[in-house]
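Sequence dictates fold. Next comes a concrete instance:
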Amino acid sequence: MRLFVGDDWAEDHHDVEVMDSSGRRLAKARLPEGVAGMARLHTILGGLAGDEADEVEVLVGIETDRGPWVRALVAAGYTVLAVNPLQAARFRDRLGVSGAKSDPGDAHVLADMVRTHAHELRPIAGDTAQGEAVKVVTRTHKTLIWERTRHTQRLRHALRDYFPAALVAFTDLDAADTLQLLAKAPTPAQAARLTTAQISAALTRARRKNIADKAAAIQAALRAEHLGQPEVVTAAYAASVQALIAVLTVLNTQINAMQGQVEAYFGQHPAVEIITSQPGLGQVLGARVLAEFGDDPHRYTTAKARKNYAGTSPITRASGKKKVALARFIHNDRLIDALMTQAFSALRHSPGARAYYDRQRARGCEHNAALRQLANRLVGILHGCLKTGTLYDETTAWSHHIESLAA
């Protein structure tokens, strides 16, 4: 006997519907988030299973793969299928074209989807607690970096509007020395009065090189003539910039702190040596790759499956005599970002990777397309190393391509 559960979750409740194999609705309810809701779900399913509870398989469809609720479902022995919201939306259109939508309706869609397409849906990964911990700290670290980039762009736009000399003087707006000098002199008039000693002191604290030359260049740029704004407008911009500087200073501190946490958690993972042996992967980037792939050894049955999840492998569209290969645009943004960064770094550290990239360029591929193909190849190499438990070897990794090129 099988029971199919659709779980449409919200922040404080879950709408669930239970179906049997024929598609008949057996139960529906709105459950509160937390222990009380989970206990009630167990009661509903236990009542439907009756005396044959041990022989009943429960399949749950839900549009998330993490959180205490999902963990509790797995711990209860249910098969939890993480459904992509885009998949659920497409399936909803199959059941009705009116466009109507509700939480109980979504629970019905999920239950029916699990009932008819369970064989095509992926059970949530059985990652270890250590792997989950690495994911938590790496995602927080990367999110803070993205936030720093956003605030740096806001700072750049503000300076461009009232203080263009600062953009000439400082090339790295989120650097510690730049933030210190802008905080001390947020207006063009104040910046023009900065001495070389003050500028040199900030550069020294930031451990810059060629301090004397850089201090002179910064001072000259700040004292050069530029277009500006009225005094009252400049003062308003200066107040805004000081707020952005305060946020960026805190972000820099927390990013450095979280990097230490990433390295600490990743350093304790059993796969750290295999992952960091890959070209282009260090402690931080390797941690991101591990976090987004997960560490369930049974999640990816083949290298192709891992490449498809990574989004590095192309998709084929064929119709009649027309056949084209396109890049995947639906993917894990954090993972593809890490893999493309790895591929670019591998160009400097791996002769095989460099030769592979150059061959793609010689075939007419643009830089990004060639880099994506290299990333795809590196994912396959990583999969083989993790599957066999061996470290990366330059000769073994690229021997097939070297032999085919020689032939």
